[in-house]
Amino acid sequence: MTEPHDALRTGDALLIVDVQKDFCPGGALPVDRGDAIVPVLNEWIAAAKSAGIPIIASRDWHPREHVSFESAGGSWPAHCVQDTEGASFHPNLRLPEGTLIVTKGTRFDKDQYSAFDDTGLAKALRDRGILRLWIGGLAQDVCVRDTALDAVQEGFEVHLIPRGSQPLSLTSGKAALQEMESGGVVVESPRNP
Description:
Elements: H1 4-7, E1 12-17, H2 38-51, E2 55-60, E3 100-104, H3 121-127, E4 132-138, H4 143-153, E5 157-166, H5 170-182, E6 186-187
Parallel strand pairs: 1-2, 1-4, 2-3, 4-5, 5-6
């Protein structure tokens, strides 16, 4: 198992995807055991902070009538609506001051699963000299998958932290892990049970 204090080096960044209240138990679009990844990610945050490694956190930040919502003909219940409690980061996630916040899902005409989709994140990382990303968050089979695959396409070396990520379902989670590996993402062990 890769431990954060052993893994991180200059040129790395930690990218935490959408660990928001609405994606955790009790939220509008909950991932089963989604909150169980928070202590794991906090270990990585502490190690990154100690090593001086940049920490990035993405968030869905949807307008009220977003195209992805079932009420607008989309696939998902309304979630992570701008300026609502559900859109806030999980209260136990220890994001330090200076965390780079990437806001996505703000467009009215399309959804943005990936933290790289029309956000300028790739340029921001290159400007900081980042070559390698460690990624965790929610949900493993949706926004984490798309973010990781886009990061590879942008030329970054990408490592998924499986214990720091949880899928909507085990079946789609396994498929997402295979898709990410096939797409060039290094899936660290252990995998989710």
